[in-house]
Amino acid sequence: MDGSRLHWKRVRLRSAYSISIVPTDIIVLGNMTMEMFEKGEKIIQILLKASFAIKQSKVKGPAREIQFLGVKWQDGRWQIHSEVINKITAMSPPTSKKETQAFLGTIGFWRMYIPEYSQIVSPLYLVTRKNDFHWGPEQQQAFAQIKQEIAHAVALGPVRTGPDVKNVLYSAAGNNGLSWSLWQKVTGETRGRPLGFWS
């Protein structure tokens, strides 16, 4: 990991390129096909100059929709892929601490799609403590609710910039903890679009 971090520090990409870097993949985002080709080609040239190997067979695109790490990216928005939703909603209630921890790990990856995630799942964390495992009505209700929230999660984004874009941060505090969400609105939109939910 340290070696790859050093390599990425050596490669200077100007902020004009809207990219996401995952250890072995790069996604180039853009609005126009030609723009994406040009960005992609420049990034490939920078990486080749920095001695990275690139398999041409792995270079794909452009596309209006891609699926990557369980996320469906479409028109600048990202959402939980339907296959992931189906797998999560089909899960049976955990019968042990380990199963509960595994379930929390799975849904925790998607937490930024779920308003008040921490408050919803807090009863599930109670059964992961060192006490004897006891799955009660409170845990069952939280389990059912979080699966329902995953099934109805909204698409996030796209991140927009410009003078007509308003960033709106909503926050709430209560007995069950803190939560906040970031939304963007442009002129003419009533509600705006969420960029993420945190709690």
TrEMBL record:
Q: List where this protein forms a coiled coil.
A: none
Alphabetized Gene3D superfamilies for the sequence: 3.30.70.270
Give the domain of life.
Answer: Eukaryota
- Family matches, as InterPro entries: DNA/RNA_pol_sf, Rev_trsase/Diguanyl_cyclase, Viral_Replic_Matur_Polypro
The species is Hirundo rustica rustica
Q: What is this protein called?
A: Reverse transcriptase/retrotransposon-derived protein RNase H-like domain-containing protein
For this UniProt entry, which segments traverse the membrane? Answer: none
